[in-house]
Amino acid sequence: MTWIVYMCRLPYPVQRLYPDKLVETRLANLENEVRLLKRQNRGNSKHEQDDENDAITSDSTRSDVVAHGELDETHASPDATDGIGSIEFMDENDSAYFGPSSNITFMRKIRRGLTFVLKDRSIQLDPVPRRSRSPPPASLAISRPQSPRSRPSDPHPNGTSMADSLSLPSPAEARTLVETYFATTGVLFPFVHKATFMDTFEQARRANFRTLRRSWLALLNIILAMATTIESTLFISASDRAARAEVFFARSEALCIKLTMSGTTLETVQTLLLMGLYLQGTNRSVKTWNIHGLAVKAAFHLGLHSNDFSRKFSAIDREIRARTWFGCIVLDRTLSMTFGRPSAIPDNYIRIPLPEGLGFSSSKDIEQEDSEALSTVFFNETIKLYKIMWLVLESLYESNIGSQGGTGMLTMTSDILRVEQQFMEWQSSLNPALTLITAKHLSTDEEEYSLSKRLRVILSLRYHNLCILASRPFLDFYLHRMERREPDDPETSMILQLGSRYCRTCFESATNLIDLIHTIFHSSKLSRKLLGAWWFTFYYTFNATLAIAVVMLIDRVCGSENQSISGIPEATLKESLDKAIDCLPLVDPGNQMVSKCTQVASTIRRYLELLASSNGLNEQPMVSGTIAVEAVDVDGIDAAVVEFPIDPSHIGLDWFHQGFNPELQSDVVGGLYDMDLFC
C-alpha cells in the first residue's frame, strides 16, 4: 500500500497508529493496569520511575490517540452500553441514566416480567425431583475483552515523527473512500457540501497535503472512518474493518477535540456530528453522548440556530449552515430516543426553514433528477418524521425526564391518537419518489439497486421503528401488570380494552420492519446496499425483535385459554420471532456486538418456549420430566438441560443478584454483564 503524509502544526503530539498492533496494544495496556492496581494495593501514592517509563513505552502503540496531559478518562475502556444504547454490559458504581424510551429500560422491564412469571410458574407446577448432579448454568456467560484506561502519552513517544503520525492513504485510496462516503452516509446526512469538500481535497492533493486546515483534516479523517466502517466486503472481517476505521477516527479526534476548547468552525461541528454517528456503532456510549453535547454547543456558538444571524452569509453557506443545524437536530432526536434522555435541542428552538437544495428545481417530480435532489428531499422527510419523534418522546415518555408520577393511561391514549394523526399526515405529504415501501414490493421489483429505492427502504425502517416506539407504552403497561397483579380499576379496565389494538399495531410495525430486512437479506437479486449503516439496521431489527417477543409474552401470560390479548395466532407470532432472530446475525456477520445481542434474543425465545410448554402449547419436547433447551456453548461454557419447575437462579439468570445492564442485554441471560449495544 502506498502512503502519503501531510504536514500540519499541532499544539500537541499525535501518536503512530497501526491496526495490526491492536492486540499487542491491548496486552500492553492490560499489563500497565495490573501494575497500577499493584501500586494502589500497596498504598503508594507515587509511581516508581521505572514502571512509569514502562507504561509510557507501552502506550506508544495503543490504538487511541491521547493528547499529552489529558485525563485518564479520556479514552476509558468500553462502556457498559454500546454507542446506540441497545443493551448493557455490566454493573457500574457510577451508573448512567437511561430513561423510559431506551431499549435498556425496556429490557429491564422484560427481565422483571420474565423473572416474575418464571418464578410464579415454578410454584404452580408440580415439583419434579432434581437430578443428582446439578447441570451447568444455562447462562450465556459472555465476557467482554477488557480495555484498560489509557495513560497520558509522552510528548515524543519512541521518537515518532510528526510525518509518520499524520499519514494518510494514497490519494487514490483516500478519494475512493471519500466517494464512498458521499454515496452512502453523505446522501442520508447531506450537511457536508461535496463540491466544496472535493475542491479542497484536489487542492490538497496537488500540494501533496502539505498546507491544510486542522479542521478540514479532522473532517477528512472522520469521513474516511465512516466510509471504512460502513463499507462491508467479503475480503475483510468486521473486526479488521473496525480496526482500520478506528485509526482514522483517532486521528480525527486528536485534530478536532482540542479545537473545540479554543474556538470552532462549521467544519468542526460537521466533524463532531460524524464522530457522533460513528461512535453509535461502537461500545462507547459515554463518548457518544459527550461528543454530541460538544456538537450542539458548537452549533449554538456559531449561531446555526438563528435565521437572522445567517443572513449575512452567502446562499450556499446559509444552506450548509441550515443542513448542519438540522443534522444536530436529527442526531439529538436519535440519541434522546436510544439513550432515553432529554433532548438538548427543544422543538421550539427550531425556527429556521428546511433545507432547499443546491441548484435543482423544487418540483415534486424528482424521479429522474440527480442524487442531490433526492438526498435533500429525503433529509427533509426525515426531519419532519423526527418532529413526530419529538412529540412521541414528549407526550408518551415525558421527555425522558423519568418522574415517578407519570401521565395517566387515559391521557396517554389520547396522546397516541394524536401521534397516529401526525403519522397519517406525514405519510400523505410524502414526496412521490419517497413513498414508503413494503417487502412485497421489494420482492417483485426486478431492479437490484437504485438510490430512490434505498432511500425509501431506510425511510420505511425509520417510520416503522418510530411506530413501535409510539405503541410500546402499552407493552410496558402489560409488563407492569405481570409484576403487580393489582385489582383492575375502571381506568385499567378501559386500557385493557385498548391494549389488544395497540399490541397488534406494535406487532404489525415490527413485522413490517423485519419483513423488509429479511427480504433484502434473503433475496438473490436485491443489494444489501439498500440498507444504511449496519448499527442503525441492527438497532431497528433488535428493537423489533424485542417488541415481537413481548407481544408473545403478553399473550402467554395475560391472555386467557381461549383468547389472547393481541388476537394474533400463536403460529404467526412464533414465525415472526423466528424470522426476526434469523435476521439479527446477518446484519453484520462476524461482529461481536451483533453476536451477543443475537444470543440474548435467542435466550428470550427459549424462555418463551418454556412458558409455552407450561401453558400446554408443547412447543418443546418433554424428556423425562424436563424440557429440553437448546445447548449453547459460549466461551467454553456449556448450557445443558433445564428442569421444570423453572427456577431462574438454577437456570443461571442471576437477575436476583446483579443489576441489569440494558444496553447489550447481558443480564437477560445470566452472566451477560459486559455487553454494550443500543441504549
Report on this model:
It is a single chain. With 679 residues, the protein is mostly helical. It has a domain of 217 residues. Helix content is 55%, strand content 3%. The strands form 3 sheets. Strands 3-4-7 form a 3-stranded antiparallel beta sheet, with no helix packed on it. A hairpin with a 2-residue loop joins strand 5 and strand 6. Helix 1 runs antiparallel to helix 2, helix 18 packs across helix 19 and helix 19 packs antiparallel against helix 20. It is globular and about 75 Å long. Keywords: DNA-binding, Membrane, Nucleus, Transcription, Transcription regulation, Transmembrane, Transmembrane helix. This is Xylanolytic transcriptional activator regulatory domain-containing protein. One of its GO terms (molecular function) is RNA polymerase II cis-regulatory region sequence-specific DNA binding. InterPro entries: Fungal_SecMet_Regulators (IPR051127), XnlR_reg_dom (IPR007219).
